Amino acid sequence: MSLATVRPSACPACEAAPAAEALAAHAPQPDARLLVSVPGVHCAGCISSIEQDLARMEGVNSARLNLTLKRLSVDARAGIEPQDIIARLERLGYDAYEMDAGTISMTETERQGRDLLMRVGVSGFAMMNIMLLSVAVWAGADGPTRDLFHLISALIAIPTVAFAGQPFFRNAWKALRAGRMDMDGPISVAIILTLFISLYESLLSGAHAYFEAVVMLIFFLLVGRYLDFRARAAARSAAQELAALEVPRALRLEYGQERTVNVTDLAAGDVVLVRPGGRVPVDGVVLEGQSEIDRALLTGETLPVYAATGYAVSAGEVNLTGPLQVRVTAAGKDSSLHRMADLVANAESARTRYTTIAQRAAAAYAPTIPILSFAAFIVWYWISGGDLRLALNIAVASLIITCPCALGLAVPAVVTAASGKLFRKGLLIKNGSALERLAEIDTVIFDKTGTLTMGTPVPTNLDQHPAEAATVALALAEASSHPLAQALALALRDQGVTPAAVEAITEQAGYGVEGDWYGRRVRLGRAPWVGAEANSMTAAYLAIGDRTHAFTFTDQLRPGSVDVVQALQAQGKSVRLISGDVPAAVRDLAARLGIADWQAEALPQDKAQAISELHAEGHKVLMVGDGLNDTVALSAAHVSISPASALDAARAASDMVLLGRDLSPVADAVRMSKIALKRIRENLWQSAIYNVIFIPIALFGFATPLWAAFVMSISSISVTLNALRLK
Amino acid sequence: MEVLAILIPVSLFLGFLGLAAFLWTLRKGMYDDPEGDGQRILDTRYDDKPKPVERDQ
Which residues of A touch B (CB under 8 A)? Predict the structure, then answer.
């Protein structure tokens, strides 16, 4: 529906035909492969307990847990839904999130990864074999033996380069056609030129052939590419394919009959039925019925809002207690959801394209390679008085030595090490440059509901009520699906309270629950309805005859939120809280967490506005949020993080996704990103220094294939080791 | 030096053998879950008998 524009679909063709995607999801599948993300797994015990438990589950053929990707793949018969698996995992004590089982793009990334790895393997084995022959040449083989060895090397190197070098040639060709200059152009030229000159030299019994250097260059560059690819693929598949929460369908009332239709088919003036627990599909006005509406995802308000005839509702809100008939005022493109998506698109295009440090280094370095070797060729041709072969040899030597072997590894090695460490802590990096941008931030803005808090209320004063009040409250609370009632029932059950024998329980949608307890009327619900005096806190009120009790609630803090605020402040970041909730609730939370700077009742535009003002002052902002109301701010911020429980649109708009419940990896990520950036800089300097030392050697004509092989391997290994130092 | 006539083909053959073994492990998906494979050693389920062969894995 409306937000399809911001969510890359698992099936590109389905973007054009949403109905096809819906059909594909509902078509009976004989043996489905379900994928579930389980961020909490970490050990052998987790593997065996999950796999054994699921093997016993009805309808499951087999289950396998991938610990590296923290992902469970279940082979199940038709009729088993991901929700069943998730419920089962939750009983085992693991949080789980559904992933899109449209495995098309998944197998595509797997295929690409294997393809790259195969090229790495081929070039690696070819490199070893050529090196075996080259060592003999370096050790002093000469005459026909050397020529034979060179030719055998050529025999291995040429097919290897033709196969393993393809990613570079393809990229270079693409860049050339687009009129751009990137690293792959010079690399491809260097590879092909060196290969030809070396073959020519071997045929003429020349002393130097650079076959091992060419293959080694390809090998190290491919390793860098593969690391880069893995970091991005792991993130992409898990973060963007977590299933959507949106309802693409609605119940339309036609002459008193309910009919299921696509939301896109709704027009203004239609009447739709929204059942309790359902999401409101359109903007509209309530025609009939009364209920309470959960607007947390849209506005950040924790408390449900009363809705009855004449009240306006917006797409994306959740209907809680009673059925509502809603007359559509705006659907599709005009709905508030879609307007939000437009704002996100605007913010994203306004965000200036960030150039990473690797891109900047490559842009500075790419032209120097061909320029240097061309200069070497001209100068030596002139000095030697027209010796074409000597000039070409020196040009090729400088070409291969200046080729940025270590540069290709410098950034991916660090990013892989850092994102691997963060992934184990429960943070998924979706965007390659996110780590770098995260290192630059000085301000952190948190959303409240669903981010710093769990968005679920917890009773605070259960001990202050007499036992009979607790038993009656439990009996009434269990009859309602209102979030406060459910939270109350859960907490009372946990305390071992048993429900009182309340009879004739009925729910008054929008007001509360009432019943009969040994002839006395008992009510649980809103203050005016039960006849209690409303206090300023979030509360549910119980009336037993004339006596009233107030059960107060607070929004439960997300684990780690206290730590994360403290840790960020200790790192010298300024921490702010901007929420759409009422001032009292925001002030309360800010005080609990020690945040001095807070803002309440902020509209989505206000959040984005605050961020662009900070950016204008020269600050760099990290936004952490989960709701639809945060999506604009998430895409406007310098870098953004959202929890896995966040709405799909919010996750799509953010750069990193928190996999677990715990918020503390955010502080780790900020700390880690700084160290990672430092390592990246060190690595770039290292590879630059190697070049500064060896380029003159090559230019003066002293370079030999042994030198080239030595420089390449030593610089690549040293940048990799430096990346592994990351703690 | 005649020994080269044997040693070079042997070294090439061994190289190909290594490459073929690598491609086989790659096709069998042995690099898909390095961390899990490391931990699965600690699993005591198949200590006394081998795991039954599955079709798809």
Answer: 43-44, 47-48, 52, 62, 64-69, 75, 110, 114, 117-118, 121-122, 125-126, 128-129, 132-133, 145, 148, 152, 156
